[in-house]
Automatic annotation (TrEMBL):
Signal sequence region: none
E.C. code: 2.1.1.-
Domain of life: Bacteria
A GO MF term: methyltransferase activity
Cited CDD domains: AdoMet_MTases (cd02440)
Residue span(s) of domain Methyltransferase type: 45-138
InterPro entries, per database record: Diverse_substrate_MTase, Methyltransf_11, SAM-dependent_MTases_sf
Protein name: Class I SAM-dependent methyltransferase
Species per Swiss-Prot/TrEMBL record: Rhodococcus jostii
Database matches in Pfam families: Methyltransf_11
């Protein structure tokens, strides 16, 4: 069963503002390009939402698939990439990727589905569609980095980042922390984005604690590669 995203499903226009403000220096994609190579290959962006990241992959990949379970976001993504002949957006989920076995070089998921214990079925599905030597790349927010992590944990006291990191390590992922900067055109847009990410109380606190229009946000990038060559079971 697909779990609704609490922000992009309900406030897609505000989420678009957030996407444009996130990582304005391109630190995450800079790290990804050094960690995995999708040049001339096939990329599946799982939980692609409105398709914000698909054009970036399309610049150098031969084929890009956007996988998204929510029909309104599917249409937004298709509209965004309609001019790109090497991109196709299809309905699916992390646990049901509608692609063949060993057909993809990189499976990318950014703040979508893969949040630690409980996502094992999605990991298995990603391993199924990956070619030998391919990589599953999971990008999530680092709740150990403040102030953003402090706000996250205020609203999600049950979320334990150490448990999540231990889970990914046990599943064979390497993890790197990546520092990014978010920058908004004005403070009202900052306020609006904080309002879709946090409860009213936490969003108000976050806005008061953020001078100006920028804030530092740290991510974790988890990478697991599918073995290549002979495997002894």
């Amino acid at each position: 069963m697909t779990i609704p995203s609490p922000n992009i499903w309900h406030w897609p226009e505000w989420y678009e503002v957030e996407n444009r403000a996130q990582d304005v220096d391109g630190a995450i994609f800079r790290h990804l390009r050094g960690a995995v190579d999708w040049t001339g290959g096939t990329v599946a962006d799982v939980g692609c939402g409105s398709g914000f990241h698909l054009p970036v992959f399309a610049e150098s990949a031969a084929t890009v698939y956007g996988i998204e379970p929510h029909p309104p976001l599917l249409e937004r993504a298709r509209t965004r990439v309609g001019h790109l002949p090497n991109v196709r957006v299809i309905e699916g989920s992390a646990e049901g990727i509608p692609l063949g076995d060993a057909s993809v070089d990189v499976v990318h998921a950014r703040t979508a589905y893969f949040f630690g214990p409980g996502c094992g079925r999605g990991i298995c599905e990603a391993m199924r569609v990956l070619r030998p030597g391919g990589a599953l790349v999971v990008v999530d927010l680092d709740a150990t980095a403040h102030p953003y992590g402090e706000w996250m944990r205020a609203d999600l006291p049950q979320y334990n980042p150490e448990t999540v990191e231990a889970f990914f390590a046990a599943q064979g992922f390497d993890m790197v922390r990546v520092e990014t900067r978010w920058r908004f055109p004005d403070r009202e847009l900052l306020r609006g984005v904080l309002g879709i990410e946090f409860t009213k109380k936490t969003a108000s606190k976050a806005f008061a604690q953020t001078p100006g229009v920028a804030l530092d946000v740290r991510y974790r990038v988890h990478v697991r590669r599918k073995p290549a060559g002979l495997q002894i079971l």
